[in-house]
Amino acid sequence: MAFDAYFFNFQKKENSTLTPTQAQWEAGADLMINLLDETSILNPTFRLELSTPPMASATKYNYCYVPDFHRFYFIDDWSTYRNLWICKCHCDVLASFKSEIIASRQYVIRSASAFDTYISDALYPATTHEIQGLDIKPLLSQGGSTDFVFADHMSYLVGVVSYTVYNVGSNVYYWMTESELQFLMSLLMSDNNWMFGSDTSLTGPMQKALTNPIQYIVSCIALPFERPTPTQDGSNGVQAVTSIAYGWYTLTNFNTAVLRDNFTYTKLFNFYDIPKHPQNSRGLYMNAEPFTHYDLEFEPFGIISLPAITMLELSRLRCLLTVDLVTGAAILKVDNPLDVNHNILCYRTGQVGIPIQLSQMSVSNFGKFSSAWSAAASLFRGDLGGAVSGIADVAKGYTPSLETTGSNGSLMSISTYYRTPILHSRFLEVVDDDNADNGRPLMADRLLSSLSGYTLIDNPHLALSCTAGETEQIVTFMKSGFFIE
Questions:
Q1: Average pLDDT value for residue range 5-13
Q2: Which three-class secondary structure state does DSSP give residue 70?
Q3: What is the C-alpha to C-alpha distance for residues 164 and 246, in angstroms, rounded to an integer?
Q4: pLDDT higher than 80, residue 390
Q5: Quick one: which of 198, 170, 188 has its CA closest to 254?
Q6: Cα 14 from Cα 481, distance rounded (Å)
Q7: What 3-state DSSP class applies to 211?
């Protein structure tokens, strides 16, 4: 049985659908072949007579096409027998049935031409080399200057038992500067004329023995920020007053401020241009753990680890600090200012205000770090928690806790408040990838004709016009990775 066959030289990968153009195979040698007895169509052996041109040059050909079989073949070997060339071949199944293969829809695991950047690629391991990212600080506005957590000032919120129009329950809260609180304590502790007035029936020592001058002060919180300028009408929540309603008494000629309807202090911090993994061109998953790590250094909450997976495409970060002026308790909320749903990335609570025990305060040594210097010894008693144990619980180490009203906190951590918050970024380096030969994760159902290059299929399903043996070979190629070309 004689057939026409086109023999030519053609370079391609065996696991590729690449086919020669018609011009390529027609430019080769058009030879007349005979099948060897009992040969296979999948692995045929062709006989060519020596007289068939190009005779000895035939051995330079490595590929052939048999139109009557509708198949392309790789040439495995050339040999001679008497006056015959013997050509042993095997079918190039991917090229022969390319049109049917790429017309099918398959579930694609990896592809060189399409991939899902959110899918983590476990094919390439991370190295132990850590890339130090940028340390960025918040900006008051984009292109503006950095800002500290708190200004380098102290103010004091004093709760007094009394009855005025400013009452919150039975208490009135006066927001004082340091000099105003010094004056108040000087007045209360120097003599009791403000209480007894012109009554001289009791001597000074007897007056002091029978009265507690600070009995109407229920709390005093040291706040690491400046009091707003009081207004006459209290429109900003802080109203200027010239007297203090102190229990049953009134302390006159006293210029200070009373807290009206706003009992919180808020401050906003914005971080711009969040650093991203330098290798994230291979996929956004590189901006998440374990390749990317973010740590927010924000006193007094310590060092906060932020979930990088929630910040894959985040360009901005907002930190909202809210302080309860009455207790000194603070809340830190971290979110994406561009997120309309306002999903919170981090929520931390801590203690910003320091409770001051006024009974241990003397006028002579009262200052920015007075009052609770006796609490310095707490460092050696372990009251600062993480001060000795390191960063296992940094927030605890930097956050004094309020256990009872009026108890001593620690002013030693106040100095840490006057720092600028910093967002630290760290990245693990990953070995180089080879997209051309290994593709990237896609994990989607796709029409194969829409893809190109390396493709890996999960559990291929095919209905082809070929033998079962050829279908099995095609399935094997697809499951182990093949090239659509």
A1: 91
A2: coil
A3: 10
A4: no
A5: 188
A6: 11
A7: coil
Mean pLDDT for 117-133 is 88
Confidence of residue 400 (pLDDT cuts 50, 70, 90): very low
Q: How far is CA 10 from CA 19, 61, 292, 329, in A?
A: 9, 8, 46, 77
**CA 296/CA 348 separation, integer angstroms:** 12
Please, is 468 exposed, middle or buried when counting C-beta atoms within 10 Å of its C-beta (0-12, 13-18, 19+)?
exposed
pLDDT at 76 exceeding the cut of 50: yes
d(CA 191, CA 359): 15
162, amino acid identity = S
Quickly count: other Cβ atoms within 10 Å of residue 16's Cβ: 18
* Residues 14, 20: Cα–Cα separation, whole Å: 13
The pLDDT, as a whole number, for residue 55 is: 54
Tell me which residue of 447, 465, 467 sits closest to 457, measured CA to CA.
Answer: 447
Question: What is the dihedral angle through the alpha carbons of 387, 393, 396, 399, rounded to the nearest 10 degrees?
Answer: 80
Tokens of 245: 């309603």
Q: What is the rounded CA–CA span in Å between residue 200 and residue 204?
A: 9
Q: Tokens 């030879």 identify what position?
A: 31
Q: So what's the pLDDT on residue 237?
A: 86
Stretch 85-97: mean pLDDT, rounded?
93
- Tens digit of each residue's pLDDT (9 = 90 or more) over 333-383: 999 888 887 788 889 988 888 888 765 333 333 333 333 333 333 333 333
pLDDT given at position 357? 73
Helix (H) or strand (E) holding 126: strand 126-132
Q: Which of 21, 2, 9 is nearest to 74 (CA)?
A: 9
| CA quadruple 346, 347, 351, 353: dihedral, nearest 10 | 90
Give the DSSP H or E segment for 181. helix 178-190
* Rounded Cα distance, 289 and 400, in Å: 32
Residue with tokens 């009373």: 258
In the numeric block, which tokens belong to residue 84? 């015959």
How far is C-alpha 202 from the geometric centre of its chain's CA atoms? 69
Distances in Å between the Cα of 430 and the Cα atoms of 275, 309, 310, 485 are 17, 17, 21, 29
DSSP 8-state secondary structure symbol assigned to residue 227: P
Q: How far apart are CA 234 and CA 377, in angstroms?
A: 41
Rounded CA gap, 395 and 302, in Å?
4
For the residues 63-92, what does the mean pLDDT come to? 89
Question: What is the model's pLDDT at position 50?
Answer: 60
Note the pLDDT of residue 402: 27
Q: pLDDT digit string (tens) for 21-52?
A: 888 877 888 888 887 777 888 999 988 876 65
Tell me the chain's radius of gyration from C-alpha atoms.
41
- Alpha carbon distance 187, 451 (integer Å): 85
Q: Which residue has the tokens 């009262």?
A: 366
